[in-house]
Amino acid sequence: MNLLRSKQWSPYLVGTCLGILTWFTFGVAKKALGVSTNFSQVVKVAETAVAPEHAKSVTYFTDYKVPTAFGWEAGIFIGLIIGGLVASWLSGDTSGTKLPELWTQRFGTSRAKSSALAFIAGIILIYGARLAGGCTSGHGISGSLQLAVSSWAFFFSLFASGLATAFLLFRKTTLTTTTSQR
Amino acid sequence: MFESLSIISLGLLSGFVFGFLLQKGGVTKYEVIVKQFLLQDFTVLKTMLTAIVVGGFGVYFLEGQGLAKLSIKPAILVANIGGGLIFGVGMVLLGLCPGTAVAALGERNGRAFFGTLGMLTGAWIQAETYGPISGCAKWVDLGSLTLSQVLKVSPMVVLTGLAAISVSLFVAIEFFERRKKSSPAR
Questions:
Q1: HEC states along B80-118?
Q2: What is the C-alpha separation between A97 and B183, in angstroms, rounded?
Q3: How far is CA A137 from CA A41, A90, A91, A166, A172, in A?
Q4: Average pLDDT value for chain B
Q5: Is the minimum CB–CB distance between B30 and chain A shorter than 8 Å?
Q6: For residue B132, what are the CA distances in angstroms to B83, B136, B138, B182?
Q7: Which of B26, B41, B99, B173 gives the lowest tally of CB atoms within 10 Å of its CB?
Q8: How far is CA A142 from CA A49, A57, A136, in A?
Q9: pLDDT of B61-100, one tens digit each?
Q10: Minimum Cα–Cα distance from B75: chain A residue
């Protein structure tokens, strides 16, 4: 009970549970755990409804085998929201509703600016994921644990560019925080 | 438009556990993600490597028993690496990745909301602009390839090596984190 109400679990415990979850998805559902396919699928279903002829001409849907009917991926999407909701509710964790401190230190307290940049970041994020064929779950966890070369290539490149981006963006910010702590 | 109810339910259940764990793991937080890339917080790496090692042993064991089927995404290196490089920029800007952003929706996280709208838009842009670049996006296609095929050893050997590397890395990280915490501020 205390564990359920605790705000943050050990990463080793969470990682172990995530690993066991993949035994379930591969063994019982016969599927890999992934998130980003769902976004392409929503686009495919919407385009097929609005402009069926055009949707047929989009080679991405066929090249990357984007599923037509909502199933596994859509279930994960809804489940993720409920899981996040229940976990934060149990611990009374409301930190997600506020702007993060590190963000405001670097980019200021404007909600509009934060939302606009989050929107743009979302575009970049999914563009990369869909081009690579998966995200941190489909490649990062499910693919890496199957020892897929594609997933390890994705994992290393995302870390390399993430490190470069973070150090470029926060060069000055981190300097000030470190000095203020001293 | 919909698949069977059973597969949707299995997805819902897996997604629920996944979202619950991501929230409890702290990886639905902007600062945890960004500080990983600033090398100030190693939660993301610890969580992912543990999941990969534990998951890998179990899934390959199940596969050996004929109880699980692998699904290896093709190694199309230009797309995998190019996509990964773009993804890293987005992950730092948003402070979330697709899965953790959707789980953060459950925390009523405004940035996750706009990030998710951006992801839907991005998936549309990506599908529409794929045509012209599809040629280059297929360069260096090695097919469904695994590290154990490259190294010509059994998956269990690769996983054991991976486990050894991960544990050594964890010990080193914990050592430095403890030393940083106990040393008085200069």
A1: HHHHHHHHHHHHHHHCCCHHHHHHHHCCCCHHHHHHHHH
A2: 34
A3: 16, 24, 25, 21, 32
A4: 95
A5: yes
A6: 16, 9, 12, 56
A7: B173
A8: 31, 30, 9
A9: 999 999 999 999 999 999 999 999 999 999 999 999 999 9
A10: A150
pTM (2 d.p.): 0.94
Judge whether A40 and B126 are in contact, CB under 8 Å.
yes
Which of helix, strand or coil describes residue A93? coil
Given a contact cutoff of 8 angstroms between Cβ atoms, the answer to whether A103 and A115 are in contact is no
Question: Amino acid letter at A182?
Answer: R
Structure tokens given for B3: 């698949």
Residue A181 has pLDDT above 70, yes or no: no
pLDDT in tens, A72-104: 999 999 999 999 999 999 999 999 999 999 999
Find tokens 């575009």 and name the residue: A123
Taking CB atoms and an 8 Å limit, are B19 and A132 in contact across chains? no
* Contact call for residues B95 and A99 (beta carbons, < 8 A): no
